[in-house]
Every structure is written in structure tokens, then in C-alpha cells.
Amino acid sequence: MSEELDKNFSVDEEATLNVEEELEKMKSEPELEEGKTPEKDKKEKTKKKKKPSTEDLLLEIQDELAEMKDKYFRSLAETENYKKRINEDLKRERKYAGYSLANKLIDSIEIFNQALNMETNDQNLKNFLYGFKMIDDMIFNALKDEGVSIIDTKVGEEFDPNKDQAVDVEYDPAKLENTVLKVVKKGYMFKDRILRPSMVVINIKPGAQKEVSDTEQTEKRKDEQQ
Fold first, then answer.
1. Closest CA to 184 of 112, 91, 110
2. Residue 188 has what DSSP assignment?
3. Which of 201, 110, 106 is nearest to 153 (CA)?
4. Could you tell me where the DSSP H helices lie in the chain?
5. Does residue 196 belong to any structural domain of this protein?
């Protein structure tokens, strides 16, 4: 009798241990979401771990290469445009490098010319003036080599505001209106730029003169307002 009791007790003890082990396993395993089975969970993990195909990788590389090419060509175009602008600026600076010096010398040469054209009966002074005239010609020839030229404004031709500046107005009915009556000062060009316009007196009727002055005042007011 005691032997049977011992056997039953050992069987119950083993069953209890097995149940406890199963419970421990269930606790250690991660809980599955609702509607998921272990097989479905494994499939989803396999899908997540699936590597991209070779075609996908090639397409991705081609897109990156196209983007890099676009950036490269844009940078290249910007660099070329910058080089062109720099070259144009350098050419312009070299072309008009002597503009400032020529502008300063012109007035001095004009005063020098006025002194050389003075009339005298003194032979010694005439000899000095002749020598200075040669120096004046040498200076002006040097300026001509650098691009300075005289603006050929003639009496009787139509007034051109692009190269002439009206310093005074007079009226001669025997001559056409808006024409040059007198050249007060010669004008000069530096290559294709106006160094100094020709100072002229133009032929305008007294009534027209008032209209011109009114127009000039109106334009000045507009410029001041702007």
C-alpha cells in the first residue's frame, strides 16, 4: 500500500514539474499580436530581412549618377560664365586704362594751346613758342596713340547732343535752326567713348529757346523726383 502511494506521489510531482516548465517557456517567448500565428510572424520577418534586388540597386545608382551629372554640368556652366565675365571685365579695363589720364591731360593741353596761339612781334618769343608747339604736338601724338581723337564738329552742321554740348544759344535767320553757329571748345573721344563733348553755340529762335529751357527744367524736376 505504501509503495503504491509513493508511486502516485512521484507521478504527480513529475506532472507538476512539467506544467511549471511549460509555463516558464510560454513566459520567455514573445507575445504574438492578435490575429498572428508563429508561422505568419516568421514570414513577415523574412520579408523584412529580404535584400533589394540587383535591378533595384542599379536603378538607384543610375538616379544618383544622373543627379551628380546634373550638378556637375551646372557647376561647369557657372564656372565658364564666371570666366567669361572676368575676361570681359579685364578686356574693358585694359581698353580704357588710359581714360582717366587722358581726361586730366586734355584741359592742360587746351590751356597750353591757347598760350601757344598768342600773337607777338618778338622774334625770340616766337622761337620759344615754336619749340613749345613741337612739344605740344608730341604730347598730343602720344595721346592719339593711346586712342584720343578730336571730335570733328563743324559750324553749320546740325546739333548732335550725343557729341555736342550747347553752352549758349543765338539766332541767325540766315541759317538753319538747331545748327552749330560757333565751336567754343573742341571735343575729344577716347576710343569709342566721349572724353569731352564739343562746346558749341546753337541757332535757335527766341520763342523756341524758351520752350527748350522749359523742357530742360521739366526734365530736371523729373530726375530730382526719381
1. 110
2. E
3. 201
4. 2-28, 38-48, 54-95, 99-116, 123-145, 206-225
5. yes
In a domain, residue 216? The reply is: yes
Query: Which CATH number goes with the domain that contains 187?
Result: 2.30.22.10
User: For residues 195 and 1, which has the higher predicted lDDT (pLDDT)?
Assistant: 195
Using a cut of 0.85, tell me whether the model's pTM lies above it.
no
Q: Record the cell numbers describing residue 191, joined without a space.
A: 576710343
Task: Look up cell 608747339; give the residue.
Answer: 133
3-state SS, residue 184: strand
- For residue 94, give the C-alpha cell: 585694359
Strands 148-151 and 187-190: antiparallel
The count of C-alpha atoms lying within 13 angstroms of the C-alpha of 103, restricted to the half-sphere facing its C-beta, is: 11
Domain-embedded: residue 220: yes
What does the pLDDT look like over 143-167, one tens digit per residue? 898 899 999 899 989 999 999 999 9
Contacts with 165 (C-beta within 8 Å, 6 or more apart), sequence order: 187, 197, 198, 199, 200
Domain extent at residue 200:
150-226
